[in-house]
Write a structure and sequence with these properties.
It contains nine helices and six strands, in the order αβββααααβββαααα. By secondary structure, the chain is α+β, with helices and mostly antiparallel strands.
Length: 200
């Protein structure tokens, strides 16, 4: 995780409630959608969409059509679709669907089959949010910069984040060096053993 990503994660972790359940809007084909920030993880944000069964069977939107085809393409009844989805949930769960967001392809997984709706999820890492020019990442970065404008422009907060970043990077470097040293010792012992065995 680079510094910019670490900075975004730090201000979010300091006040998760500010971004939880916030919506992000996007266009996909002829339809407009809203997804929301659902879970705030250590390395990524979970971005989710909920699609009700009546919406799946009645909409011509690309996401609904893909869900409809995945669950039971031949039915036009929301109650039948719900029943089939529940009966086939073990097969449907974790299936992937492609979602076009402002012209960019994203892969969401089916993350829940509920009594009212199907849940789809994609994880976007803090590194992606901080550095990517792709549309969903850019929208999330803009949302974070708006919601956390105060902390992101506060020198004391940024100094504290920078100090923590420097300490964590130094610790990572130390661990990395220790691992390399252990590997060198292991390789040396292996060579000594092989030399001993070959000397017989």
């Amino acid at each position: 995780m680079d510094y910019e990503a670490f900075k975004l994660r730090s201000v979010i972790f300091d006040n998760k409630f500010r971004i939880e359940r916030k919506h992000v809007e996007f266009d996909s084909g002829i339809s407009s959608y809203e997804v929301l920030v659902h879970d705030i993880g250590h390395n990524a944000l979970d971005i989710v969409g909920f699609f009700k069964y009546f919406q799946i069977v009645s909409s011509v939107g690309p996401i609904e059509k893909e869900l409809h085809n995945l669950i039971a393409s031949k039915t036009n009844s929301a109650s039948v679709l719900q029943r089939v989805a529940f009966e086939r949930r073990h097969y449907i769960y974790d299936e992937k669907i492609h979602v076009d967001i402002d012209g960019e392809d994203y892969v969401f997984k089916i993350d829940g089959i509920g009594p009212q709706a199907v849940k789809i999820t994609v994880q976007i890492t803090y590194d992606e949010i901080a550095n990517s020019t792709k549309p969903l990442e850019s929208k999330l970065r803009k949302l974070i910069n708006t919601l956390y404008q105060g902390p992101l422009n506060n020198k004391e907060t940024l100094d504290k984040i920078n100090d923590t970043w420097q300490k964590e990077e130094a610790h990572k470097q130390k661990v990395h060096e220790e691992v390399l040293k252990d590997e060198e010792i292991r390789a040396q012992k292996q060579k000594e053993l092989e030399d001993f065995l070959n000397s017989w």
